[in-house]
Design goal:
mainly alpha
């Protein structure tokens, strides 16, 4: 049990800025095992966003509450996944060979493709949440963060890690994982969906996974696999796809 707690806090420390016990560090062995808790970390981050939204919605407009909620989740994670999404936009937008793409993604500077990609991504995320029924927004936020991290975990499971350098801090977390790890991540990832008390919500998993397959196909074609940035991009895209899918469900099926 103590080991599992250590592994969980390792995941929480790696993917967020949330304070963790001093005895937790970025031990590569624990970090490699922490993938099982990625979805749970997502639920925690999503809960922060949901609480911020609910609290500020009692004072300000829905729009302001949503922006503050989005800010809180970005701050809580240090824009970890958003940075990965931007790096992928820059790398695949400006690179035409595997080496060039990986080199651009490793560059800490934000380029044109990354800037435009982030602006569009965050705009769609805000617009989709604004169109969601007010009563469900907190649960939608929690579920979106949780399930999207499970989808990102499936990329690590299906695609090999391709960076050939050892200086990437994300390497232990982005390397291959076992089926049992994926199963645990999946269970923890979909738990929030049961709170909707409507089985139709599980249909959102289909377009989310299709978005992962689409991105995964591009990653495989151009660089032969995935990196930590690629997993971050999958998380961000699938989160937005979840929000859009719930809107479609309410409009045509729910």
């Amino acid at each position: 049990m103590k080991k599992e707690i250590h592994i969980f806090f390792t995941a929480l420390m790696f993917f967020t800025r949330i304070p963790c016990p001093k005895w937790v560090n970025h031990d590569p062995d624990y970090l490699r095992l922490s993938a099982k808790y990625f979805s749970l970390v997502g639920s925690i981050v999503g809960s922060i966003g949901a609480i911020v939204f609910y609290g500020f919605s009692l004072i300000f407009s829905v729009e302001i509450a949503l922006l503050l909620s989005m800010f809180s989740t970005v701050y809580a994670t240090g824009a970890f996944h958003e940075d990965g999404f931007a790096d992928v936009c820059d790398g695949f937008g400006g690179g035409w060979t595997k080496d060039k793409i990986l080199l651009i993604m490793k560059d800490s500077r934000l380029g044109t493709y990354g800037t435009i990609g982030l602006l569009l991504l965050l705009s769609i995320k805000f617009a989709a949440l604004r169109e969601t029924e007010l009563y469900y927004i907190p649960l939608i936020i929690i579920s979106g963060h949780s399930v999207s991290r499970f989808i990102a975990t499936t990329l690590i499971y299906t695609h090999p890690y391709v960076r050939d350098t050892d200086d990437s801090k994300a390497k232990p977390a982005a390397k291959s994982i076992h089926s049992s790890t994926l199963l645990i991540s999946g269970i923890l990832g979909i738990i929030p969906l049961f709170l909707f008390k409507n089985p139709w919500i599980f249909l959102t998993l289909i377009p989310m996974y299709l978005s992962k397959m689409w991105l995964g196909g591009k990653f495989k074609k151009w660089i032969g696999g995935q990196t930590g940035d690629c997993a971050g991009a999958v998380q961000q895209l699938s989160e937005v796809i979840f929000y859009l899918s719930t809107i479609a469900l309410w409009k045509y099926i729910w």
